[in-house]
Design a protein that fits this description.
The complex is a heterodimer. In chain A, helix 1 packs antiparallel against helix 2. By secondary structure, chain A is α+β, with helices and mostly antiparallel strands. The longest helix of chain A is centred in the first third of the chain and has 32 residues. In chain A, a hairpin with a 4-residue loop joins strand 6 and strand 7. Chain A is elongated and about 95 Å long. Chain A has two domains: 106 residues, no CATH class; 126 residues, Cupredoxins -  blue copper proteins (Immunoglobulin-like, Sandwich), CATH 2.60.40. Chain A has six helices and ten strands. Chain B is mostly helical. Chain B folds into four domains: 49 residues; 199 residues, no CATH class; 114 residues, Cytochrome Bc1 Complex, Chain D, domain 2; 29 residues, no CATH class. Chain B is built from 18 helices and two strands. Chain B is globular, with a radius of gyration of 28 Å. The chains are: A alpha+beta, B mainly alpha. The interface between A and B is medium-sized, with 32 and 38 residues. The structure holds copper (II) ion. Copper (II) ion (CU) binds next to loops of chain A.
Chain lengths: 263, 428
């Protein structure tokens, strides 16, 4: 008699995958590893797309995993004695069905999300950049255009890692990279865009709430990738203007700052 | 890795007997999975060995120190400064042991949940645990991460030969050094940056104390028998204080900056331009007629120059004929060369030239405030070929040059500007 244990081991192992998979998703929000708080005007749309696709793929995932388990369990040779396997040539109808259903689903997704994609990547607000972000190993160099609104003029303001933007206004960022591929990622603003050396990529969003959030690099870019972390501060127009003014004054300093201000 | 191999073997043996008894035929795949899993698990639990400071091999070889002398230096250094995990701050150094503890040691959280080991978390992969500028990523970078041991710092508010102030180093950590791989650490917060700066000073003092000792063997009398006196007086007075005092003095050695003269900006820029190209300041010699940094470009930073000169020396010693030497001399000569080659290959990075700055990119390493430029031009850049202009230019003249420098990235109507307006496509 052949050993039934191996069949049980493998089928349970494959059953564990959907059980653990679904379990992790179920508890994720309660241990705070779910989507971070959304503070952008377009985030709702992105999130609902995400949930929609998650539900769709989730169902497919559970069904296929259960089938996998069931087949291993049921058709384990050890459990079926001397029963002979039958040879079938395949089912044309079945194959057509399982090709068409995913194809239609994919096509539907592609069309369904098109508007959201266009909003984020094509319908850029007509304005001059709010700030230029230059990614480099391993930091975010920022350049604000200053009072004249133009980049590349003597009143530009240079900063690093500490991105500020006004709330409830269209923000247009001009994204560049100085060295390798990076990815400009603002999780709370549902915004992620690769920075590509040699390209000037526009990125836009509108923040709906004030606060401080992470700016991280989402593309493995070298040894120090993990610490390529900045911060975005979303604040009222007045606070933003005051901050710009103060930073600009610092940049124009012709006398040393008092020690306690540096520290 | 080796210490848990026996464990693995027994585990596997046990595993296989278990399988035989139960006639439970797990496939090889499952076995491999199990083994890999336990391997990963066990290796994660392995203890890392305690870190140690690396001796300054280049200097030791250069000074031809004997093994027992090297050992003595290491012993004294450990007594004065402790180890990477356990720093000591002698009162004479003026260092704050609380801050040092925060920055030293392996990365871990203390009882109150505060992150320790900041230097190894953020800096040592470039600057090395010893602060010798030879962390694992260093060799790929240009310029190299700074070696703190000779105590040379570039971007500061003090005279060329003086140490930087605490505030200068804080500024460097906050802003990073744009145009080099040294990143900004501002978002770590004030307390952590402060602790890191203290630790940089600690490593620098330790490195300089080591150099002082290694060089002191030369000055010993015969009665010392090739050993440094190990009295507290000697070590403090001759070794430690000469270094520590210079760090403490720095706080009062900040360059006085007179107010910018009240001249029309355009006029000031014009005067600055004249000075820049004139014989007196002669900035053009290095920064080039276009200010693109394409003037003299074959010079080295001081630390690279030290290595370059010594390696040239060693190279020519290799070519010295040993014919005239006695057998002992020959052996000694050969031993010295072998040691020098080893130190140069293993404990020094290949010297690299320093390019004068391209002043049209608006990328400055030491900050872009007018006052930063004033300091840079007044005192030059310590460790780099850039000379101090304080002797030749008056403060007003320095301010004019500052204004000119600041206008350079935007100067489109000059000679260079005429060229620039032509886009690449038109040139083809
Ligand atoms: Cu990156």
């Amino acid at each position: 008699m052949r050993n039934r244990l191996a069949g049980i081991f493998w089928s349970i192992l494959f059953l564990a995958v959907p059980v653990l998979g679904v379990g992790v998703f179920a508890i994720a929000p309660s241990i705070d590893v779910w989507l971070p708080k959304d503070v952008s005007s377009h985030g709702k749309e992105i999130d609902s797309l995400f949930y929609f696709i998650l539900a769709l793929t989730g169902i497919v995932f559970i069904v296929t995993e259960m089938l996998l388990f069931w087949f291993i369990w049921k058709y384990d040779a050890a459990a079926r004695g001397d029963e002979k396997a039958t040879y079938i040539h395949g089912s044309h109808t079945l194959e057509v069905i399982w090709t068409i259903i995913p194809a239609v689903t994919m096509l539907f997704l592609a069309i369904y999300q098109m508007n959201a994609w266009a909003d984020m990547k094509m319908r850029r607000p007509v304005m001059k950049p709010t700030v230029e972000v230059v990614a480099r190993q391993f930091e975010w160099r920022l350049r604000y255009p200053g009072p004249d609104g133009d980049l590349g003029t003597p009143d530009d303001l240079f900063l690093v890692n500490d991105l500020h933007v006004p709330v409830d206004e269209d923000i247009l960022i001009q994204l560049k990279s100085m060295d390798v591929l990076h990815s400009f990622f603002l999780p709370n603003l549902r915004m992620k865009q690769d920075a590509v050396p040699g390209m000037k990529i526009p990125v836009w969003f509108k923040a709906t709430e004030t606060g401080q959030y992470d700016l991280v690099c989402a593309e493995l870019c070298g040894w120090g990738h993990y610490k390529m972390k900045g911060r975005i501060t979303i604040e009222s127009r007045e606070d933003y203007d005051a901050w710009l003014e103060a930073k600009y004054r610092e940049q124009e300093a012709t006398q040393p700052e008092p020690m306690d201000e540096i520290l | 890795m080796t210490h848990f191999l026996p464990f693995l073997v027994t585990a596997m043996n046990r595993h296989s007997t278990f399988m035989c008894r139960n006639r439970f035929s797990l496939s090889p795949v499952a076995l491999v999975l199990t083994v890999c899993g336990s391997l990963l698990f066990v290796s994660g639990c392995g203890k890392t060995p305690a870190a140690s400071f690396r001796p300054n091999m280049v200097e030791a070889a250069k000074q031809r120190l004997k093994p027992e002398q090297e050992e003595q230096v290491a012993t004294i250094l450990e007594a004065m400064f402790g180890t990477p995990d356990n720093p000591i701050a002698m009162p004479e150094t003026g260092l704050d042991i609380g801050k040092l503890r925060l920055a030293a040691g392996p990365v871990h959280s203390d009882i109150v949940g505060r992150k320790n080991g900041l230097f190894r978390e953020h800096c040592s992969h470039c600057h090395g645990v010893t602060g010798d500028g030879m962390g694992p990523t260093a060799a790929f970078l240009n310029p190299y991460p700074r070696d703190y041991r000779p105590g040379w710092f570039k971007f500061k508010s003090t005279e060329r030969a003086d140490k930087p102030t605490h505030g200068d180093l804080v500024t460097i950590l906050n802003n990073g050094i744009y145009g080099t791989s040294m990143p900004s650490f501002e978002l770590l917060g004030e307390a952590k940056v402060d602790a890191l700066v203290e630790y940089v000073k600690y490593l620098s003092m330790r490195g300089e104390a080591e150099l002082n000792m290694m060089r002191y063997f030369f000055e010993l009398d015969d009665e010392d028998e090739g050993k440094l006196p190990e009295t507290r007086d000697f070590l403090v007075e001759e070794i430690l204080l000469p270094v520590a005092e210079r760090w403490q003095e720095a706080e009062d050695a900040v360059i006085e900056v007179p107010e910018m003269p009240e001249v029309d900006l355009a006029e000031s820029i014009a005067m600055g331009k004249e000075l820049f190209y004139g014989n007196k300041a002669n900035c053009v010699k290095c920064h080039g007629v276009t200010a693109l940094g394409d003037g003299q470009a074959n010079d080295y930073d001081d630390w690279n120059k030290v290595v370059k000169q010594w390696s040239d020396e060693v190279q020519s010693s290799h070519e010295v004929s040993t014919k005239e030497m006695s057998r002992e001399e020959k052996a000694e000569h050969r031993e010295y060369l072998a040691r020098a080659d080893k130190a140069l290959a293993g404990d020094a990075l290949e010297p690299r030239t320093i390019q004068p700055r391209n002043l049209r990119q608006a990328i400055y390493r030491g900050g872009r405030r007018p006052i930063d430029f004033y300091y840079r031009i007044h005192a030059g850049i310590n460790g780099a070929p850039m000379p101090a202009a304080a002797g030749t230019l008056t403060p007003d003249e320095i301010w004019h040059v500052v204004n000119y420098i600041r206008s350079l990235p935007y100067e489109f109507d000059g000679e260079l500007g005429a060229d620039r307006s032509m886009v690449a496509r038109d040139r083809l």
